[in-house]
Write a structure and sequence with these properties.
Number of helices of chain A: 0
CATH class of chain A: Mainly Beta
Number of domains of chain A: 1
CATH architecture of chain A: Sandwich
Number of helices of chain B: 0
Number of domains of chain B: 1
Helix content of chain B: under 10%
Oligomer: heterodimer
Largest interface: A-B, 25 and 26 residues
Strand content of chain A: over 45%
Order of helices and strands of chain A: EEEEEEEEEEE
Radius of gyration of chain A: 13 Å
CATH superfamily of chain A: Immunoglobulins
Strand content of chain B: over 45%
CATH architecture of chain B: Sandwich
CATH topology of chain B: Immunoglobulin-like
Number of strands of chain A: 11
Distance between the termini of chain A: 37 Å
Structural class of chain A: mainly beta
Radius of gyration of chain B: 13 Å
Mean pLDDT of chain A: 94
Chain lengths: 115, 113
Amino acid sequence: EAGVAQSPRYKIIEKRQSVAFWCNPISGHATLYWYQQILGQGPKLLIQFQNNGVVDDSQLPKDRFSAERLKGVDSTLKIQPAKLEDSAVYLCASSYGQGGSYEQYFGPGTRLTVT
Amino acid sequence: AQTVTQSQPEMSVQEAETVTLSCTYDTSENNYYLFWYKQPPSRQMILVIRQEAYKQQNATENRFSVNFQKAAKSFSLKISDSQLGDTAMYFCAFKNAGNMLTFGGGTRLMVKP
C-alpha cells in the first residue's frame, strides 16, 4: 500500500513570495490533515478535511494560508505572501475516517525555508 | 483546550537497556486517545503505540509499553532492550472526540552503542 505522498520535499523562497505544497493521501482515506512543524517543536494542526469539506481550520492563518481539496482526494496548501516565521516542515497526514480509533498516517513532509 | 507536556527535551540510553519517556496532559474530557509517535531523522512520523482512555490495561507493542495513569494524567513510554534504530524524536499526542491531535514538544532520544 502506497503511503502519503508530498511534494516538493524542499523549498527555499524569499519573504513575500508565494509557495504551494501538494499532498496525495493513502487511497480510500477520507480525512486529510495539514500540520506545521517548526524546528524543535511538535506538529501543529493547520487544517483538517473530511472528503472535500473543511472540518477544522481554527489554527490556519487565513490572511496568508489557504488550502483546498477540491475532489476529495489530493490537496494543496498555499502561502501567500510568505514570512520568515513560516519556515518549517509542512506535514500532510491522512486517515480512513474521523474519530480517535483511526490512525493518522504521515507523509515525509516539505521543508520550507523563507529567507 | 488540551495541552501535552514532555518535560525531557533530550535523553540517552545505552543499547540493550531500558528507557522511559515522560508525558503529561491536561484535559477536561473523559473519552480520548493517547499516542506515542516516533520521528526518525528522515522526518516520517510513525505511530509507535496507542492507548484508549477507557481501557485500564496498559498498551504494549513488542518492546514498547506505556504506563497510563488516568487520574494523574500521565502517559509514559517505556522502551525495553533499546536498539540503535530507536534513535529518534518521540512525540506524545492527545486526540479528543473531535479528532484534533495535539502534540507535545518532543523528546530527542539517543541510543548509544
